[in-house]
Amino acid sequence: MYMVLVQDFFEVDAIDPVADDAWQRLHGHLQTGHMAVLLVKRRENGHLHWIVATESQDHNVLIYDSLIEAPYPETPDFMTDHVVTAMLIRPDPNGEQPMSSVQAHKLGSAVLADATKRMKAMK
Questions:
Q1: Which CATH class is domain 2-121?
Q2: Is-contact 60 74, C-beta < 8 A?
Q3: For residue range 56-100, what is the model confidence (pLDDT) as tens digits?
Q4: Distance separating alpha carbons of residues 2 and 112, to the nearest angstrom
Q5: Rounded CA gap, 48 and 41, in Å?
Q6: Can you give the residue ranges of every domain in the chain?
Q7: CA-to-CA distance for 24 and 96, rounded, in angstroms?
């Protein structure tokens, strides 16, 4: 996912969902009008699933999930309890690929390794 976003001219900032400032970073990014892509363990069955987060009116975030008909809000505990990895995305301001494919592959591999560790640590 990381490499595809970079190749499509997006800047990507992967954040650790259990970091003390993760919710604030996510919420602050969304308030600028950009989106985030989250890999989550679904509550219903524990399966991995990609969702999109956008800004909400309050301190929550609004989730768009292809498996659920309408968007729904999530609270800060969602980040630590269900998010495996979070990627803050925004179009590259120069309209260019922000890094080489090799760099994107290396960074994406590191994000994947962190996500694997996080999944093992989750309930």
A1: alpha beta
A2: yes
A3: 778 889 999 999 999 999 999 999 899 999 999 999 888 777 767
A4: 9
A5: 5
A6: 2-121
A7: 28
